[in-house]
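Quick one: structure tokens for this chain, please?
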Amino acid sequence: MKKLIIRLVIALVVVAGLAILAVSLFLGTAVKRGVETLGPKLTKVDVKLQTVSLSPLSGAGSIKGLVVGNPEGFKSPAAITIGEASLSLKPASLLADKVIIKSIRIQGPEITYETNLKQNNLSQIKANLDAALGSGPSEPASPKEAKPPRKLQVDEFFLTGGKIHVRANTPLGSGTASVPLPDIQLQDLGAGPDGITAAELAAKVLSAIEEGALKASSDALADIGKGAVDITKDPASAASNVLQKATKSVGDLFKKK
């Protein structure tokens, strides 16, 4: 009898373990599918995510290989590349109306800021996202969704160690430079009773990234115009002066913001 009880306990532990593993895999797959399906609809660019892992017991999770593409007309293959990010949430909130995420931490993202002196890729993605959320010019609304999006609360969002690859393209030539992205910290997102949707969270994070990129890129753009970094074309001296003035003007414009 004692052996039978032990075997039953072992069997229950194995079944419970398999159930937890199945739930973890399901959650990861669901998040990955949601990001790759909803992301392109909101941003109008390709969004790819390699893997997602999430423990329903501890609330710890991670994502790997997030790549946000560039809008049409820009030459760089991607606007944002994140190798790995970690998160921590309250497990019990997975069953509630609002999922409470205690922290999201992103280490060492690669941001490409590409401009032709008239527009830039990050602003275009942000404009697409704003339009999808109804805060900018948008296309006619599609049929209502089957159910409203899940609400979130993010107590802390932290991005550190980022790098911006500045790329200026003009009729006279082009240049590139790399500069560090200032650390970004956001707190109490969706802390109110209404919470925040994943799309609204993405808009706030992208706004912070765009602001940091503009500040960090303004001097680099001026340096590109001065020839302080590699210029992929070698225009005549007069044309170089024109490019220098143009890039400096854009840099001054960003600083005013």
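Residues 2-136+150-256 form one domain.
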